[in-house]
């Protein structure tokens, strides 16, 4: 994980919400300083409370040219939060008996002729839980040059990772023994390929039919051009990265090829992401499949891997969360299944530090089902 998340140092501050029950004041105290200190031009915070109540808080601007304040319906690229939808889709297909988590790349991608004792033995479960040993991405000389250029111009350094390149890389990959937790963007791209090969359909169409459509997620798509007419979008800016572009300067959107798009290329809004989060609390077929993705495959002291999620303990509070970084954007989605609360944070700047998500989820846990102000 690239993010750094913190809890409150002051116990009194952490418990303030339990006393005041003023949700807006709590969100303001965490989010407003990020804009005032120039860490991001704008952000949206969405909060799901027990019973299904949803609240949205916008700060700064979605676009410096228009000066429009972002809100719960503003569309942001969400980077690796895309993996939550792909992992949820895989869980649904497992539930339906279309595939098994124990299926391997050799069996699901037979035309690639992968060595069944080598990379072909990697299971879908290991891809989905980042335990395959595959790297975040390969880093050959060309990628290094692209990355150096990115530090100065913000351009996409994943652009060479198409199907041909990754399968060429994979044929020489020797997977480690056992489960090693290594976050892998190409691992999720391979998971998407396996699902498409098995079903004969694109991940985009499957996700739309099985998740986006049923949950009525109107602002969740795989490209800005697919959003409904009149949608307001955020524009990305430099933050902690790209290193040699002034913080707050505009940076270009990244365009992913078809191979990588299912892993990192989705667009969504705070309202849609809370709708996706709340579906994990339902007892219908979709809810049960989504909730199964929250079960850790390894019980580690911190950051136990699950399907697309990280499961952690925050001062005795069990949460599952995801983070996403792409171009000039940062995203966070955290769930507390026991209390049926969730927090989403979308920024139009690339910032590693999460100052809002974990802290707000923890404060919500200190007062069960409080009324919002």
Structure description:
With 373 residues, the protein is of the alpha+beta class. The protein is 35% helix and 15% strand. The chain contains 14 helices and 11 strands. Strand 6 (304-305) and strand 7 form a beta hairpin. Helix 4 (82-95) crosses helix 10 (203-215), helix 4 (82-95) packs across helix 13 (285-292) and helix 9 (185-199) packs across helix 11 (258-264). The two termini are 34 Å apart.
How are the secondary structure elements laid out?
Blueprint (H helix, E strand, L loop, with lengths): L3 E2 L5 H4 L1 H5 L2 H14 L5 E7 L5 E7 L15 E4 L2 H14 L9 H4 L15 H5 L12 H13 L9 H9 L13 H15 L3 H13 L42 H7 L1 E3 L1 H10 L5 H8 L11 E2 L4 E5 L2 E10 L2 E8 L4 E7 L5 E2 L2 H9 L8
Parallel strand pairs: 1-11
Antiparallel strand pairs: 2-3, 2-10, 4-5, 6-7, 7-8, 8-9, 9-10
Helix pairs in contact: 4-10, 4-13, 9-11
Q: What is the compact description of this entry?
A:
This protein has helices at residues 11-14, 16-20, 23-36, 82-95, 105-108, 124-128, 141-153, 163-171, 185-199, 203-215, 258-264, 270-279, 285-292, 357-365, and strands at residues 4-5, 42-48, 54-60, 76-79, 266-268, 304-305, 310-314, 317-326, 329-336, 341-347, 353-354.
End-to-end separation: 34 Å
User: Mean pLDDT across all residues, rounded?
Assistant: 92
* Broad shape: globular
- Secondary structure class reads alpha+beta
Strand and helix order: EHHHEEEHHHHHHHHEHHEEEEEEH
Count of individual beta strands: 11
Instruction: Give me the side-by-side strand order of the main sheet.
Output: 3-2-10-9-8-7-6
Keywords for this entry:
373 residues, alpha+beta, seven-stranded antiparallel sheet, two-stranded parallel ribbon, 14 helices, globular, disordered C terminus
